[in-house]
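Example 9 (inverse folding). The structure is encoded as follows.
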């Protein structure tokens, strides 16, 4: 269950990182053109506001645990790309671990079924032997 929860978290995190990378790339593309970027951002759940973003050399990223740091656009893109690569690698490892666990569960179930069938067969042999003795 823990691995499945981690998988869900990573699968939710990867699109967010990609979206942040796209925003940073858009800001970098608009830089120096004099053209502002008009965007809607979420103020609270279900409440959005419109903003115009002018030329900027830095962005602020939430790092978690109520921590936000300001990075240059290049540093932010590098950090986000590194986080994306790490998240994808972690997801691959997690999927491999989950597949291994599924295989082990299947092997265990087959083994239990074989032991049960062996026990049933042994009891029948004993019953036949007991019936012949009487």
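The amino acid assigned to each position is listed next.
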């Amino acid at each position: 269950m823990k691995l499945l929860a981690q998988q869900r978290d990573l699968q939710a995190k990867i699109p967010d990182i990609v979206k942040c990378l796209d925003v940073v790339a858009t800001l970098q593309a608009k830089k120096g053109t004099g053209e502002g970027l008009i965007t809607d951002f979420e103020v609270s759940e279900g409440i959005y506001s419109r903003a115009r973003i002018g030329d900027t050399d830095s962005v602020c990223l939430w790092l978690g645990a109520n921590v936000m740091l300001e990075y240059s656009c290049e540093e932010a893109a590098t950090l986000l790309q590194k986080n994306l690569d790490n998240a994808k690698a972690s997801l691959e490892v997690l999927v491999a671990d989950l597949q291994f666990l599924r295989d082990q569960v299947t092997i265990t179930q087959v083994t239990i079924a074989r032991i049960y069938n062996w026990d049933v067969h042994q009891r029948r042999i004993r019953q036949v032997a007991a019936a012949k003795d009487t």
